[in-house]
Design brief:
By secondary structure, this protein is an alpha/beta fold. The chain contains 15 helices and 17 strands. Helix 12 links the parallel strand 14 and strand 15. The protein starts with a helix and ends with a helix. About 45% of the residues are buried.
Length: about 450
């Protein structure tokens, strides 16, 4: 789009306001872009863009974009990103604004932008990503996002035709996005933990999207992730360009094959979601020209953000904090499943605070019944402590999952509930928290340490 006088006036005013907000100690990650779009609706289209734009969308978009940011910076690339800002149109406009000169020219060669799926119609008319990564499409925030078909269709209809889309072949919803675009697919070969029958409540693709015949799964990994085909037409899990052929959790390695070439990388996490994330990140970085050694050297130093996962050894006990994102039944189910799969005897503390003011939650608790609390019904889990605003909802769901009442503690007050922690026979304490319960999680962790100290 051609720059006009309104564009330049808007640019200068908003840059001045952005600088003022920063002087006042404000993040200035949303408002400047919002004001720019209000004053000049075509603002994003008129701004010059970096030569290469990496877009990231899907349920795990923030984690993937953060990993790409960190590795590029670690290797000396000068980039702009919305790591600390909003992933909707206003936040993306702010990011591009901050990376532009007073004449609207881009100061950087690469942009890494997390893009909210619902914002696709407002972003993609003005921005054409060189690559768009989608690792997964899961149920998330039912009140806002409705069903996965609704979300995937919004993205699919708006992806620019010149964008190369990097998609998870094992996610049949994700892999169907932008069918006419150039694609790079990635996949993980069959694992020992994969099953012939589904073991989750939620499966968001059961019938063939072409002919509506029931899909036949060769194996399930979790929920709708796995390998499947239609028995009546040629619809199937697409063949992948990059395949994780060997997953060595004991030695924390993954081997990735592309064509005849195989490369081995160090894992930063044994969580299957983060392994998929690493695979997607590896592919886009290879497209940008980074070598195996550059990528793997950064992986070795990379850690999952503490607000997502942390592990600490404390006086012969292991204390783990892990995000179990409220209003997202698959994220919660995977957190519960991961907890169950870890060795040793465990106590689990759950805070699912989707009523937090930042979460903009509602009284809709349907997602609780899509969540596999059944994973917590396990002999290795000796105690389940439920706290926070949703403590009664989670307690009822635990009872439906046939978790024994004597194992359960349910109290609204976080510290009062945590005080009931019993350490006898326990090796690990898992604190499963919501996205907006970070400070509360710190308080609970401190209380757990006090209980250990007393013992």
């Amino acid at each position: 789009m051609k720059k006009n006088l309104n564009f330049y006036i808007t640019l200068w005013i908003v840059k001045l306001i952005s600088a003022g907000l920063k002087l006042l100690g404000k993040n200035a990650t949303y408002y400047p872009g919002k004001l720019a779009l209000d004053m000049c609706p075509g603002f994003m289209g008129m701004l010059d863009k970096p030569k290469t734009i990496i877009g990231v969308t899907g349920t795990n978009g923030k984690t993937v974009s953060n990993m790409i940011n960190d590795i590029l910076i670690d290797n000396g690339y000068k980039i702009i990103n919305n790591k600390y800002g909003s992933n909707i149109d206003a936040g993306i406009a702010t990011t591009l604004l901050q990376g532009a000169t007073l004449f609207g020219k881009s100061k950087k060669e690469i942009a890494v932008l997390e893009i909210d799926e619902r914002s696709a119609p407002k972003v993609f008319p003005y921005i054409t990503p060189t690559y768009l990564i989608c690792t997964n499409i899961f149920r998330d925030s039912l009140m806002r996002n409705a069903h996965t078909e609704f979300i995937s269709e919004i993205v699919s209809k708006n992806v620019p035709k010149d964008t190369i889309v990097i998609e998870n072949a094992d996610d049949l919803i994700c892999s169907g996005i932008a069918p006419n675009n150039a694609k790079i697919y990635f996949s993980i070969d069959k694992l020992d933990t994969d099953t012939k029958e589904p073991h989750n409540i939620v499966r968001d693709i059961i019938t063939c999207p072409v002919c509506n015949t029931k899909l036949e799964y060769e194996y399930y990994r979790y929920h709708h992730i796995g390998k499947a085909h239609c028995t009546k037409c040629d619809y199937k899990t697409p063949d992948a360009d990059y395949v994780l052929t060997n997953l060595d959790l004991e030695n924390k390695k993954m081997t990735v094959k592309s064509g005849e070439k195989e490369e081995t990388y160090d894992l930063i996490s044994d969580n299957i979601i983060n392994i998929y994330n690493m695979l997607a990140v590896t592919i886009v970085l290879k497209q940008l020209g980074l070598t195996h050694d550059q990528i793997n050297s950064s992986f070795k130093d990379l850690k999952i953000v503490e607000t997502r996962y942390s592990k600490e050894e404390y006086k012969n006990y292991e204390i783990v904090t892990q995000l179990a994102k409220g209003m997202n039944p698959i994220a919660c189910s995977l957190a519960f499943r991961y907890t169950k799969q870890q060795p040793g005897n465990k106590a689990v503390i759950i805070i699912l605070d989707d009523l937090h003011e930042e979460a903009k939650g509602s009284e809709d608790t349907a997602w609780q019944y899509d969540t596999d609390y059944e994973f917590l019904n396990d002999e290795s889990i000796k105690q389940v402590i439920i706290a926070g605003p949703r403590y009664m909802d989670s307690y009822i769901r635990c009872l439906i999952a046939n978790i024994k009442p004597e194992v359960l503690v349910h109290k609204k007050d976080l510290i009062e509930a945590t005080s009931e922690l019993k350490l006898d026979g326990i090796d690990k304490i898992f604190i499963l928290h919501d996205l907006y319960s970070i400070e509360e999680t710190k308080q609970i962790k401190q209380k757990v340490k006090e209980i250990i100290d007393k013992k």
